[in-house]
Write a structure and sequence with these properties.
The chain is mainly alpha-helical. Helices cover 59% and strands 4% of the residues. It starts with a helix and ends with a helix.
Amino acid sequence: MLVKGFIQTLEAEKGYSAHTLRAYRSDVLDFMGFCLKIIFAQESWTEDDFKKKAGQVDKQIVRKYLALMVNKKKSKATMARRLSALKSFFDYMVRSGEIKINPADAIPFPKKEKKIPQFLCIDDLFRLLDGIKTDSWMDKRNLAMFETFYSTGMRISEIHGMNIKDIDFKTQMIRVFGKGSKERVIPVGQRALNAIKYYRTQILEPGEAVFLNKDHRRLSQRSIRRILDKIVQECGLETKISPHTLRHSFATHMLDSGADLRGIQEILGHASLSTTQIYTHVSMDRLMQVYDKAHPRS
């Protein structure tokens, strides 16, 4: 199958995460449906139907598809991902000899919207962590997990995939496998390490994964989000908090305390410094709020 071959090639060559591969597959199939139903007026279709007509797909058709996304009020980030999926897909078709040129190649990506990341102030973050119960081994797991989130700024996928062998308790370092399976080594605080040690002593069958579910299997990302939602509700914070909020909070608090931007970039695993620089906007916004409140002639 055409799309299956494309996804398998992406996985082998690019090392994309399962989440990205699912998104790319969905994007390509959505475009196929648009082409065959809207452009070629074919109500029912298969991938083979698209394969036969792929040579007729030009830049204007790709632009019409993106215009439809605008009308559906899709975000610029979603549109950029879909265009990226199409560029990669048509590259795959060119290399496979199915078409001669990539119709999406010359289409520029939409400019990304600069969103200020959501984060918790230090008091609310401490309130969240200090409010986690430690009655059962799963409660202790939750405390260890979210202490690690805040101590390291790791992504949820990285916390989910972490194994006990990745932690060096002596040097206080963790080996992390980030996006595209890129490996980095980052520091972790003693409080988080102590929480992990204490939680692990409560488990009869510890296994390879650090954070386990009730069946002693690796805790899923969905379960991590659900656990955080429950903890947020129990501690009375009236705001929507995701695991990524903890990552944003880590970076913001580090920067506010004088950490070097490039150091934060290395810890977070950002490929580009420009991605990390968004946290300078957070700090400047807070600085201006303090200035406006405190200065007598602001």
